[in-house]
Every structure is written in C-alpha cells, then in structure tokens.
Fold this protein.
Amino acid sequence: MRHGRRTWAHWLAPYDIRVNSVHPAGANTPMVMNDAVAALFADAPASGGADVGNLLNVGLIEAEDVSNAIAWLVSDQARYVTGIALPVDAGFTAS
C-alpha cells in the first residue's frame, strides 16, 4: 500500500513530526546539465533549448534555491508547516 505525505503528516502529527516534500524545477546540476538532456532540448521545436516552461524569466534554477527552500522548511519559521508539497519551480506548475 502506498501512502503520501498528507497521510504521513496525519499519522506523525501526534509525535510533533512534520512531513513535507519539495518539488524543484530543472536545476543547474549535472542531473540536468548533460549531453542527454541537451540533445532532448535541441530537438524541441522553436525553443532553441532555452525555454523550459518556467513562468518566471529563468531557464534553470540553482541548487542553492532548492537548498534555501529546504532550510526554511526545516527552520522554526516553518514550524507549523506540514503536509505540503512545496514547489521551487520558478512558476513552472502555475503556467
């Protein structure tokens, strides 16, 4: 049986354990910046490889952007945040 973050958040809340997930856009890391992905975008019509569909004017986010979101999520500033999927995606999911 598969259980998602919201189910785990319900189960673990009585123990003061928070459950969240982070969903980044393509980041400027070797996972995205490699020959296979470059070939995939080179074949995309009319994009020239630069447009990955982000709402904000950024092609790839930086790994630091994801790390900053995670640092906030585990900080006391987000102590009451649980059960969420946090997009760090320059608006990709909103477009």
About this structure: The chain has a mean pLDDT of 89. The two ends are 32 Å apart (CA to CA). DSSP finds three helices and two strands in the chain.
